[in-house]
C-alpha cells in the first residue's frame, strides 16, 4: 500500500505512505518493538476499515433513498396517469417509460440519478396537468352546485358557495365530460326557468299596470331578486318562486276579471241613467274612460290604470249622484215620453185618454213601487207599439188625407160652380179657372179612391180583428156616410136641374105669350158670391168633415183635439155638425126653397 501510495503523484506530499514512513522513523527513534509496531499497524488498518464501512453504509443508505425516491416517482407517475386517464398524452409517455425503466436499475437503464432525472420533468408536467384538471373539475362542480342551489332556492342573493371537494382519484376526461354535460343540462334548465320567470314577471307587470298596483312592491313579495336592481342571471328560478308567481298571476287575473265586471256594471248603470235623463254628450264624455270598456273582454283591457280602484270609486260616486238626481227628473222624463206617445197616437188619429195615463204615471212614481228604468222601459215599449200601429195605419191614413183633400176641393168646386160671376175678368179669375180644372179631375177620382179605401180598411180590420177607428169614429162608417151623402147630393143636383129646366120652360112660355122681354136693366140680379175655398167643416154638399171624430170625442167630454194635414194640433178649426146627414138634407131643402122664390119671367 505504501508502494502504491508513493507511486501516486496526484496525492501530493501528505499520503498514507509518507505518513507511514514518518511513523516508522519516529518508532525507530523511539525504539518501539516490532510487536508494538504490528499492534499499532493493525489498529490503523481496523480504523481504516471502520471508516470504509461507514462510508459504504452511508452510500447504501443513499442508494436506498434514491431507489425509494425513484419508486415513489414511478408510483406517483402511475397514480397521476391513472387519475388523468389512459387516453391522455401523459399515458402514452408513461407506457414508453415503463419499457425503459425496470424495477431494479442496471447499466442498460442508466444510473438511478439518471432515471430520476428522466422522470422528474414528466412528473412535473403531469403535476401541472393534474392541477389544471383539478381546477376544471372544481369550476364545473362549483357551477353545478350553484345552479342546483338556485333551483332549490337555498342560495341567497350575493351569497358565495363553498368550493366543492374534487375526487382526485378520477380526473379523467370522460369524468370531466360527464360533469360538463350535467352542467350544460342544468344551464338549459336554468335558462328555461329564467325565461319562464321573466315571462311571469312581465305578465305581473302588465296586470299591475292595468289594475293600478305598485309593480315592484307586488313582485318583490314573491322574491327580492325579482326587483330591477338585481341582474337577470341572479334572479330566483326556484320552484317556489315559479309557483308563487303563477299563483299571483292567477289571483291578479281573477281580480282583473272581477274589477272589469264591476266596472262594466257601473258603466251600464251610468249609460242607463244617462239615457234615462237624456244627459248631454259633453257630460258623458267625462266618463268615456269608464264606458269605453263596457263590452270589452278581459284580454282586451290593456290600458294602464283602466281598472284602478280610484276609477271604480269614481264611477260608483257618479252612479250614486245620478241615482239621487234620477228621482227628481223621473216625472219630467216620463211625461216627455207620454207626450211623445200622445203625439204618435194623435198623428195616427187613435183616440186615447191622456189625462188618466198621466195620473197613473204620477201615482206610480210617487208610490216608489216601480223602478224608474222599468217604467221608462214599459213606456218605450208602448211607444214602439204605437209606432208599429201607426205604421200599419199609415197607408190608409194617407189615402184618408187624400180623400178629405179631394172632398174639400169638391166643396170649393160646388161653390165655384154656383157663382154667376166666375167668368168675369176680375183679378185672379184665371187662377180659379185653373184650380177648377184640377178640382174636376180630382173629384172624378173620389169614387175610386173611396172604393180603394173601403177595401184596404176592411182588409186591415179582418187581419187584426178590430175596427179601424179614425178619431174615435169607425172609418168604414164615415166612408159609408159619405157615400150615402154623395148619392143624395147627386140626386138633389138632378132634381134642381129638372126644376130649373121647368122654370126656364115656364118663363119661355110666358115670354112667347106676352111677346115682350124684360130689358137687361130690369132683370133682377142674382146674389154675388166670393169664390174661394170653403170652411173645412162645411158639409152642405156632402163633404166629410175632418173634425167628425173630434165632435164625437168632444160629445163624450174628453176634450181631445184632432190633427191637421201636417200632423199639428188644430183646435181653432170649425167642427162638423153631429148629425151630418140631417144637416146636409136641410141645406139641400133650403137651397131648393130659395130657387123656388126666384122671380118668374113674365
Helical element count? 18
User: Span between N and C termini?
Assistant: 222 Å
Number of domain units: 3
Oligomerization category of the chains in this entry:
single chain
How are strands sequenced across the largest beta sheet?
A: 1-2
What is the H/E string?
Answer: HHHHHHHHHHHHHHHEEHHH
Radius of gyration: 68 Å
Look at the helices and sheets and give the structural class.
mainly alpha
Instruction: Indicate the mean pLDDT.
Output: 76
* Helix amount: 55-70%
Total strands: the figure is 2
Q: Judging from the principal axes of the Cα atoms, what is the shape?
A: rod-shaped
Poorly predicted parts: 1-12, 99-108, 517-543, 545-602
Main β-sheet description? 2 strands, antiparallel
Share of residues in strands? under 5%
Amino acid at each position: 500500500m505504501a508502494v502504491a501510495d508513493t507511486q501516486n503523484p496526484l496525492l501530493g506530499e501528505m499520503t498514507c505512505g509518507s505518513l507511514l514512513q514518518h511513523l516508522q522513523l519516529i518508532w525507530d527513534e523511539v525504539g518501539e518493538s516490532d510487536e508494538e509496531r504490528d499492534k499499532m499497524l493493525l489498529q490503523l488498518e481496523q480504523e481504516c476499515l471502520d471508516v470504509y464501512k461507514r462510508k459504504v453504509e452511508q452510500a447504501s443508505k443513499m442508494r436506498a433513498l434514491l431507489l425509494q425516491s425513484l419508486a415513489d416517482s414511478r408510483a406517483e407517475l402511475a397514480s397521476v396517469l391513472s387519475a388523468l386517464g389512459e387516453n391522455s398524452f401523459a399515458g402514452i409517455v408513461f407506457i414508453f417509460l415503463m419499457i425503459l425503466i425496470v424495477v431494479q436499475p442496471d447499466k442498460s437503464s442508466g444510473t438511478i440519478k439518471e432515471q430520476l432525472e428522466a422522470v422528474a420533468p414528466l412528473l412535473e408536467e403531469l403535476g401541472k396537468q393534474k392541477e389544471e384538471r383539478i381546477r376544471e373539475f372544481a369550476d364545473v362542480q362549483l357551477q353545478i352546485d350553484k345552479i342546483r342551489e338556485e333551483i332549490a332556492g337555498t342560495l341567497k342573493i350575493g351569497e358565495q358557495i363553498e368550493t366543492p371537494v374534487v375526487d382526485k382519484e378520477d380526473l379523467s376526461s370522460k369524468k370531466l365530460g360527464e360533469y360538463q354535460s350535467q352542467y350544460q343540462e342544468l344551464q338549459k334548465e336554468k335558462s328555461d326557468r329564467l325565461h319562464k320567470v321573466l315571462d311571469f314577471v312581465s305578465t305581473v307587470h302588465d296586470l299591475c299596470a292595468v289594475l293600478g298596483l305598485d309593480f315592484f312592491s307586488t313582485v318583490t313579495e314573491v322574491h327580492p331578486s325579482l326587483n330591477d336592481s338585481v341582474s337577470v342571471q341572479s334572479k330566483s328560478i326556484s320552484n317556489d318562486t315559479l309557483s308563487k308567481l303563477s299563483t299571483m298571476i292567477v289571483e291578479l287575473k281573477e281580480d282583473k276579471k272581477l274589477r272589469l265586471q264591476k266596472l262594466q256594471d257601473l258603466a251600464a248603470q251610468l249609460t242607463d241613467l244617462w239615457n234615462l235623463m237624456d244627459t248631454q254628450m259633453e257630460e258623458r264624455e267625462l266618463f268615456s274612460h269608464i264606458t269605453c270598456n263596457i263590452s270589452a273582454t278581459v284580454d282586451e283591457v290593456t290600458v294602464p290604470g283602466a281598472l284602478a280602484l280610484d276609477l271604480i270609486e269614481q264611477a260608483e260616486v257618479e252612479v250614486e249622484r245620478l241615482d239621487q238626481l234620477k228621482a227628481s227628473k223621473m216625472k219630467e222624463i216620463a211625461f216627455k215620453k207620454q207626450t211623445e206617445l200622445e203625439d204618435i197616437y194623435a198623428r195616427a188619429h187613435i183616440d186615447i185618454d191622456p189625462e188618466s195615463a198621466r195620473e197613473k204615471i204620477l201615482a206610480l212614481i210617487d208610490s216608489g213601487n216601480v223602478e224608474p228604468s222599468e217604467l221608462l222601459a214599459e213606456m218605450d215599449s208602448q211607444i214602439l207599439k204605437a209606432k208599429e200601429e201607426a205604421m200599419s195605419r199609415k197607408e190608409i191614413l194617407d189615402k184618408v188625407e187624400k180623400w178629405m183633400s179631394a172632398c174639400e176641393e169638391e166643396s170649393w168646386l160646388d161653390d165655384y160652380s154656383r157663382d154667376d160671376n166666375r167668368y168675369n175678368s176680375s183679378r185672379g179669375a184665371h187662377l180659379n179657372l185653373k184650380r177648377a180644372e184640377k178640382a174636376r179631375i180630382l173629384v172624378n177620382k173620389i169614387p175610386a179612391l173611396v172604393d180603394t179605401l173601403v177595401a184596404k180598411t176592411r182588409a186591415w180590420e179582418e187581419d187584426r180583428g178590430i175596427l179601424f177607428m179614425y178619431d174615435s169614429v169607425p172609418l168604414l162608417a164615415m166612408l159609408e156616410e159619405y157615400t150615402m151623402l154623395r148619392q143624395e147630393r147627386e140626386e138633389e143636383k138632378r132634381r134642381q136641374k129638372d126644376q130649373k129646366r121647368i122654370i126656364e120652360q115656364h118663363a119661355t112660355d110666358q115670354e112667347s105669350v106676352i111677346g115682350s122681354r124684360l130689358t137687361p136693366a130690369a132683370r133682377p140680379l142674382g146674389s154675388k158670391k166670393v169664390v174661394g175655398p170653403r170652411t173645412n167643416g162645411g158639409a152642405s154638399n156632402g163633404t166629410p168633415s175632418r173634425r167628425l171624430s173630434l165632435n164625437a170625442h168632444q160629445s163624450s167630454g174628453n176634450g181631445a183635439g184632432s190633427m191637421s194635414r201636417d200632423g199639428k194640433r188644430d183646435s181653432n178649426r170649425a167642427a162638423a155638425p153631429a148629425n151630418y146627414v140631417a144637416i146636409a138634407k136641410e141645406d139641400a131643402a133650403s137651397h131648393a126653397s130659395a130657387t123656388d122664390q126666384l122671380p118668374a119671367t113674365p
